[in-house]
Write a structure and sequence with these properties.
Elements (H helix, E strand, L loop, with lengths): L31 E6 L3 E8 L11 E9 L1 H12 L3 E8 L2 H12 L3 E8 L3 E8 L4 E5 L13 H5 L1 E6 L4 H13 L3 E5 L2 H5 L5 H6 L2 E5 H7 L6 E4 L4 E4 L4 E4 L11 H14 L4 H15 L12 H8 L1
Parallel strand pairs: 1-4, 1-8, 2-6, 4-5, 8-9, 9-10, 10-11
Antiparallel strand pairs: 2-3, 6-7, 11-12, 12-13
Helix pairs in contact: 1-8, 8-9, 9-10
């Protein structure tokens, strides 16, 4: 955890325009604190009273489109907290992709290693009136091979955040991080476990592996580097037997809560904060994100998080 953190916000270095269907340069001349690897997407959110059961229909109270994708959300979350974040991902050469790039640029995220694919990834998200969600996502734009992970870009950073990507891409990222002594934060989800792939090397080399309770239950083991999120109940770190209680807020949508938690946790760890301090801060970041609809839109600012900790 020893490279550097810069909490200033030189927005003049983080501007650019989309033109000619190519990825623009952001003008950044400094290294990123965190490089996030994984999806950027468009989420179509339907608010329903209750989730439909088999062969039944739930009528939507409203539907809206939001920008999202877990790794893109984390990159935005880190930037809003004051860190320099970069993203390795793919978007389509379509209106959604252009919109995503413009949004990421406006949020201060370095997009030099966002490339074009067939079409921008999309998710359909059902959110009920309690803020709970169900998600269906496509993987057309997923990172699949080690060749898609740029070595120099990754190593010119302090930490890597590894979200949803296929095993060869993940293994390449881990290899680069280990060789260059970067901090590694792995976000483990149920889709990783159901893939049947061997995640042992990736998990073993990560500094922290963040997952929710359901994914942890599927793991059938607990390791000292696990960080287990428990929704409104808080979070748990078995390495030091730390249990942090949840923060009560008016919950509208939990879609981006895990992403906000990850951003908050990394922000504190890279500042040199203790694991306990990082968990408390991350807990507040996740809670703050549930008070707004949409994943990327709900990433909280530093002031918002700190206000919940007062």
């Amino acid at each position: 955890m020893d490279k550097r953190v810069n909490n200033s916000n030189p927005s003049s270095l983080r501007t650019g325009n989309i033109s000619g269907g190519t990825i623009p340069e952001t003008g950044r001349s400094i290294m990123n604190d965190v490089v996030c690897i994984g999806p950027a997407a468009v989420d179509t959110v339907f608010l329903v009273k209750e989730f439909p059961t088999s062969d039944e229909i739930s009528l939507a109270l409203w539907s809206r489109e939001f920008f999202g994708g877990s790794s893109a959300n984390v990159a935005v979350g880190l930037s809003r907290l004051g860190l320099y974040s970069g993203l390795i991902s793919k978007v389509g050469k379509d209106s959604y992709g252009v919109g995503l790039l413009n949004t990421l640029i406006s949020e201060g995220v370095d997009i030099r290693e966002v490339s074009f694919c067939g079409k921008t990834a999309q998710s359909v998200i059902l959110v009920n009136e309690r803020g709970e969600k169900e998600i269906v996502a496509d993987t057309e734009c997923a990172l699949r091979t080690g060749q898609e992970i740029p070595a120099e870009y990754c190593t010119d950073s302090t930490a890597l955040y590894l979200g949803e990507c296929f095993l060869p891409a993940a293994e390449k990222a881990i290899e680069l991080a280990v060789e260059n002594r970067l901090n590694i934060i792995l976000r483990l989800k149920n889709i990783h476990l159901s893939s049947g792939l061997n995640l042992e090397r990736i998990i073993a080399n990560a500094d922290f592996v963040i997952m929710n309770e359901k994914t942890h239950a599927q793991m059938k083991e607990t390791r000292e580097n696990f960080v287990i999120t428990r929704g409104e109940k808080g979070c748990y770190f078995p390495g030091d037997d730390i249990l942090v209680q949840g923060i009560s807020v008016p919950c509208l949508d939990t879609t981006g809560a895990g992403d906000a938690f990850c951003a908050g946790f990394m922000y504190q760890i890279l500042k040199g904060e203790s694991v306990l301090g990082a968990l408390r801060f991350a807990n507040a970041a996740g809670a703050a994100s549930t008070t707004r609809y949409g994943a990327m839109d709900s990433m909280p600012s530093l002031n918002e998080v700190e206000s919940l900790l007062e």
